[in-house]
Amino acid sequence: MTSATITREDIYHALEQVMDPEIPVLSVIDLGMITGVEITEGEPVLIRMIPTFAACPAVSYIKDNIRTVVEKALGVAVTVEIDKQVHWESNRMTAAAKEKLKNFGIAPPPVVEGDVRPEIMLNTPCPHCGSEHTYLRSPFGSTLCRAIHYCKSCGQVFEQFKPLE
Amino acid sequence: MISNAALTDLIIKMADDELIQGHRNSEWTGLGPVMEEDIAFSSMAQDKIGHAWALYRILHENLGGEDPDRFAFMRPESAFKCSHLVEMPNGGYDFSLMRHFLFDHAETVRYESLQESSYEPFQQLSKKLKGELKYHTLHANAFILQLSNASEEGYARMQTALNDTIALAAGIFEPSAAHEETLITEKVYPGEKALYNRWLDRIYPVLVKASLNLPDMKTVAPVYGGRQGFHTTHLAPLLKEMGEVFNLDTEASW
Fold first, then answer.
1. Does B36 contact chain A (CB < 8 Å)?
2. Nearest CA of chain B to the CA of A26: how many Å?
3. CB-hemisphere CA count at 13 Å for B50?
4. pTM score of the predicted model
């Protein structure tokens, strides 16, 4: 294939195979990390992406993965760029992604309206038993994007993907 | 056209504060009083160092600065512009927590103001960072309140920590003799004086809830000097340790 015959749909389809190394059930598409795809005849396909958190240590790893996976799937040269015009917010995550996250055992972020207020972290539904009888133990967890909660109903500690405005 | 020298000066101050505070936070890794706090200080370390890196990158990409890693690890002490607050050793958890509270509210008002900056890279970056900082201030506020309201000892130690830290924290807002006017006139940021007042408005309500007494700020002499390259004796050993691996082979690729 050359860049003349592939479509944006082909690229997006291939990107569904690029998983987040910290949450392997979510692709870069699920997470809303892709901000644009440009196909120009005779040039490498340009894919623009954004990191979730500024200090995310997985960014260069994900960037390389995007390039290798798409190049391998479609046989075209690919350039991946960090998009500085857009910043990631948790509302970029698709509804399907939130469902996958929950099934993986991580509470998804609630929809953010306006600014994130501390109250948004209260009574986060437990991904194990569904109870809202929970409390925030720490706004920091095993990765930058996660918080730690405790469920008083089932007695389990669980993680949440933090809402980010 | 905004003065590059003025922008560079401001960015280095902000970035060096983030880097050195990030390094101090990382010193809690493995030593936190409870596991959640160990994780919290380690996560905030990662965030801070990421923020420093983003600022060094603006210098590198937009203002002709050096490669971020080389700039962070190879500069002499006198070229650093961090405040004395962030240089201080962690001491006890009380001091570390109070510093974290005072520093992160200062960061928050700064990044909020930069959303309106005439300098475009600041607008982009501040939008991202201010969302992340919310978790830092959420954490700080919660622990200041809990410890101050927990017991007499907790209250006394938090009040002592506040008394010992406030002059250092006020030193964050040391204006630049050479560049302050330019940066305000060019609407890069509202200036240190304005940020200092906004900061007081942010910390005051939390301190009141914790029943802590903010010293009369008229009697507090801010600890200045860091922004001009004059540092405490604590910075040199920190820089040596921080750059130890990098400086084994400065050309190595990671």
1. yes
2. 21
3. 21
4. 0.93
Q: Say if domain B4-248 classifies as CATH 1.20.1260.10.
A: yes
Interchain CB contact of A83 with B (< 8 Å):
no
pLDDT above 90 covers a percentage of chain A that reads 77
Size of interface A-B (CB pairs under 8 A): 66
Alpha helix stretches (DSSP H) within A32-146: 59-74, 95-103
Residue A145 lies in a domain: yes
Q: Dump pLDDT digits (tens) for A45-103.
A: 999 999 988 888 788 899 999 999 999 999 999 999 999 889 999 999 999 999 999 99
* Domain coverage including residue A51: 8-82
The pairing of beta strand A78-82 with beta strand A106-107? unpaired
Give a yes or no: residue A148 inside a domain.
yes
Whether A54 and B47 lie within 8 Å, measured CB to CB: yes
Contact by Cβ (8 Å): B16, B80: yes
Per the CB < 8 A criterion, the answer to whether B70 and B220 are in contact is: no
H helices within A45-161, ranges in order?
A: 59-74, 95-103
Are residues A64 and A122 located together in one domain of the fold? no
Write out the H or E segment, with its range, that includes residue B53.
helix B35-62
Pairing of strands A78-82, A45-49: parallel
Task: Point out the residue among A84, A140, A142 whose CB comes nearest to the CB of B135.
Answer: A140
